[in-house]
Specification:
The complex is a heterodimer of chains A (284) and B (283). Chain A is mainly alpha-helical. Chain A contains eleven helices and no strands. Chain A folds into two domains: 59 residues, no CATH class; 168 residues, MetI-like fold, CATH 1.10.3720.10. The N terminus of chain A is likely disordered.
Chain lengths: 284, 283
């Protein structure tokens, strides 16, 4: 994309009309520098990811995969060398799927209640949701662990799922609420006027209309869950997840298999994100 | 039935938040004043002196965390604002592509990205080794285990949380308002400082909330990129809970951290309007 092209398509412009106060050339130069800056930041954001992907193909001999030794595909066939690592990745996926399903269902219900009704306790609900987003993960993890210790609950798979639902819930509820508020109620009223029951109206009219919000909430919940480290570490007990396994391995050296699994998860994430973006473009 | 609808809808989620967010905070407060050990169990003795002792012992780490969080937040604003500005005003029809690029790194685990930085910045790693062998850097030069590495890691990991809310606020600025300012002969700089900047401040505030709080409580960056001189309060809490099993001290420290942050957050949100911050934060 060239500079001129972006200026043509650009509908929004904070600068003054060209040539009134500041000369056109300085403005152009400023924009160009800013564009270079933006790409530098993007490059910085991607640098460690590029390193991760490239070092999955490194023909390293020792346990520490730090210096480049030549290209190889051999690690792709050796994922089974670390059965606990594979088990940890599978655990991460299972937890993410389960937490996403629970979060999406109860978060959507919350979003409907908050977007559609005025009711007693709404302010308190907003406040607690705000606290759930704003509290540091460390504090949420530490207090959940305190609860589990006091109640004599053994931490493990189930407690991790509980924690993951907790921190994604507010995000889903808010995403759905935004969608519900934007709904055109007259369409539902039309369905009622034509004799549809409350139940039919919900499933045939309301639900399809809020679905994009539900889907992006679910994707967000999945992404938050699969990446989570801090709360997971506090609530996992003996259960391993992918990020926990990596943390444990940093002291002894991270094997190339981690890079490969990271690359695979990244690839899945890219596909999901691109689908979601295209989905988002279509609905606006 | 119709009256009950909102309560029935909110019930499962509300209960989840109450049981697993609000109640645990009470339990954490309770654990903090107990005495005992893992083997023999803990008993409630309302031992409030643990707060004073813990704070005295880990004063340095508390202050260091606040300092790191503050510096990293300021650096993040400085880095994120121009980027959000460019995407919002010059991104044209590719805005969503740029935003996607900002978000994509999140699909690699936070821990794995930080570990990647450790490789990159290692004393004999890809970045330093060539510079050292070329004689541009002294042999004993190192980046890991320094304050710079920890703050750099914090900024790296949380920058998108600053970019996005600022972007959302800037994107909402009506270009007509800016045009009006120009029609009234505001200079370019004035149009920015008097119109665009004030309108984008809610985004900056939301960004501060989304970054300062988790950065101050972070222990992954200090753990992976830092040295013994960079220990943050998060590292202490994590070790006390999960390694030393000194639950009362750990609970007292995290309760203090939470109280300090909640007071700060609510004062901050009160001043700026909860709904606004919440909406911006959720985007």
């Amino acid at each position: 994309m060239s500079i001129s092209e972006s200026d043509v398509v650009n509908g929004v412009d904070a600068g003054p009309p060209a040539g009134r106060r500041s000369p056109l050339n300085t403005r152009r130069l400023g924009d160009r520098l800013l564009r270079v800056y933006v790409w530098l930041i993007i490059a910085w954001l991607f640098l460690p990811i590029a390193v991760m992907i490239v070092f999955g193909f490194n023909d390293t001999q020792s346990k520490s995969n730090v210096t480049w030794q030549g290209f190889t595909l051999k690690w792709w066939g050796r994922l089974d060398e670390y059965p606990e690592l594979v088990a940890a990745v599978l655990n991460s996926l299972k937890i993410a799927v389960l937490a996403t399903v629970i979060t999406t269902v109860i978060g959507t219900l919350m979003g409907l209640a908050l977007g559609r009704y005025r009711f007693r306790g709404q302010g308190a609900t907003n406040l607690v949701m705000f606290a759930a987003i704003a509290s540091p993960e460390l504090v949420m993890g530490a207090s959940l662990l305190s609860l589990f210790i006091s109640a004599g609950v053994q931490t493990g798979f189930a407690t991790v799922v509980i924690a993951h639902v907790l921190f994604s819930l507010s995000f889903v509820a808010i995403t759905v609420r935004a969608r519900v508020i934007g709904l055109d109620r007259s369409i539902e009223e039309a369905a009622r006027d034509l004799g549809a029951s409350t139940w039919t109206t919900f499933w045939r009219i309301t639900f399809p209309m809020i679905l994009p919000g539900v889907v992006s909430g679910a994707l967000l919940a999945f992404a938050l869950s699969i990446d989570d480290f801090v709360i997971t570490q506090f609530t996992s007990g003996a259960t391993q997840t992918f990020p926990l396994w990596i943390w444990g391995a940093t002291r002894i050296g991270v094997p190339p298999q981690v890079n490969i699994l990271g690359t695979l998860i990244f690839a899945i994430g890219v596909v999901i994100a691109v689908v979601n973006t295209v989905n988002g473009r279509r609905r606006t | 039935m119709k009256r009950l609808a909102p309560y029935l809808l909110i019930l499962p989620g509300g209960l989840w938040l109450a049981i697993f967010l609000v109640v645990p905070m009470v339990f954490m407060a309770s654990v903090s004043t107990q005495e005992g050990d893992v083997v023999n169990g803990f008993a409630q003795t309302f031992n409030f002196s643990v707060y004073g002792d813990a704070l005295m012992q880990y004063k340095t780490q508390f202050l260091r965390s606040a300092g790191y969080g503050l510096v990293a937040t300021v650096v993040s604003i400085a880095l994120a604002y121009p980027m959000a500005y460019w995407i919002a005003f010059k991104g044209g029809n590719r805005k969503s592509t740029y935003l996607l690029l900002v978000l994509l790194p999140f699909f690699v685990s936070f821990v794995l990205r930080t570990v990647s930085w450790r490789f990159l910045l290692a004393d004999d790693g890809m970045l330093l080794a060539p510079l050292k062998s070329a004689g541009l850097l002294p042999e004993d030069f190192h980046v890991l285990q320094t304050t710079f590495a920890v703050i750099g890691g914090l900024v790296y990991n949380y920058l998108p949380f600053m970019i996005l809310p600022i972007y959302v606020a800037l994107e909402r600025v009506d270009p007509k308002v800016v045009e009006a300012a120009q029609d009234l002969y505001a200079a370019r700089r004035e149009a920015f400082t008097k119109i665009v900047l004030p309108l984008s401040l809610p985004g900056v505030f939301a960004g501060v909330l989304m970054t300062f709080v988790p950065m101050t409580a972070d222990y992954v960056n200090a753990g992976i990129l830092g040295g013994p001189e960079n220990t943050m309060i998060g590292n202490i809490i994590q070790t006390e809970y999960l390694v030393n099993n000194d639950y009362p001290t750990a609970a007292a420290l995290s309760f203090t951290l939470m109280a300090a942050m909640l007071i700060g957050i609510f004062a901050y949100a009160k001043a700026l309007g909860t709904e606004n911050v919440l909406e911006a934060a959720a985007r």
